[in-house]
Amino acid sequence: MTTQQYLDTLARELGFLKPDERGEVIADYTEHFASALENGESPERVISRLGSPKSVAQEYKLARRVQKAEAKPGLKSVARAVGSVALLSVYNALVIAPLYIAGVLTLVAFYAAAFSVMLAAAAGVLALILNVELLRYVQASFGFSNLAVVMMLVAAAAVGGELFIFTRVFGRWFFKGMAALARRLSGKKGESK
Amino acid sequence: MNSQFKKGVLDLVVLAMLEKKDRYGFELVSMISTRIDIAERTIYPLLKRFRDDGLVSTYLGESALGPARRYYRLESEGVKALTALRDDWKEFSANVNALLEEAGNDDSAIS
User: Fold this and answer.
1) Is B104 touching A (CB cutoff 8 A)?
2) Taking Cα atoms as reference points, which of B50, B42, B29 lies closest to residue A55?
3) Which of B69, B74, B84 is nearest to B54 (CA)?
4) Which of A44, A55, A117, A120 is deepest in the core (most CB within 10 A)?
């Protein structure tokens, strides 16, 4: 591979970067080859030490995904960073991937719980307004007044709402934490030949 | 030495080399790679990250022959990061050294 081929391939592999960023990276490597040549090093030697354009590009991709996840920690951005980091080594995959999946499942469960409580409260209000027979029956058998039913429904709605807010806060904290973990683990690459 | 370890300290090394003097990419690579062999493939991505995070800035400078060189300059954010990393490193290496010494003394029982 000639220097020009190397740089062209690298530019192609760096397609995920913005053009000006890509230009800067290519400038870094162009300069590196030129300086090495001045130093009497052959392009082959430089290439063998840098690694393939693909592996170089992967390094940038990983860094970018981690940066994005940190800047805007969300389900998708963090999943991408976690995926990239998990691919680096078995150790990373075993640490970060199960943690992420467990966290997301926990979030889903909490959201589902919050929604069902709120839904139940809404259904109760509807039953009260429509004067549903079942509600009247339950009311009569427990001896609940209308006021008691309304208060219970309000309480249920409040609990559902709080659970919802709690889940949101936990979610933000979780995605932020996972992004930070991805950053820490992004330096942990397995022994590359 | 394994490369996870080296990659971790490379941030510190690169920032430290920029503390006294602005340097260009190849200069950093050749200075560091004489002692740490993964330097060549990791320094440019690392420099880009520093640039994105505002730890360093770049400018084009003259070179005796050949194209202009891009110099890296440490910014105040970079100085902060360097100080923090250096403190961490000092504490960590002092602790490791102390442990290695203790491990060498058979009679140093846990008190």
Assistant:
1) no
2) B42
3) B74
4) A117
- Under an 8 A CB cutoff, do A25 and B44 touch? yes
Per the prediction, chain B carries an average pLDDT of: 86
Out of A24, A35, A189, closest to residue B3 by CB = A189
**Cα angle: A70, vertex B9, A91; to 5 degrees:** 65
* Dist CA B111 CA B15 (whole Å): 40
Closest CA to A100 of A169, A171, A3, A148: A171
Token pair 């490369």 is found at B3
* A117 Cβ contact partners less than 8 Å away, ≥ 6 residues apart: A156, A157, A159, A160, A163
DSSP summary character for residue B23: E
DSSP A133-167: HHHHHHHHHHT--HHHHHHHHHHHHHHHHHHHHHH
pTM score: 0.73
Q: For chains A and B, count residue pairs whose Cβ atoms are closer than 8 Å.
A: 70
**Tens digit of pLDDT for each residue in A99-158?**
999 999 999 999 999 999 999 999 988 888 888 888 888 888 888 888 888 899 999 999
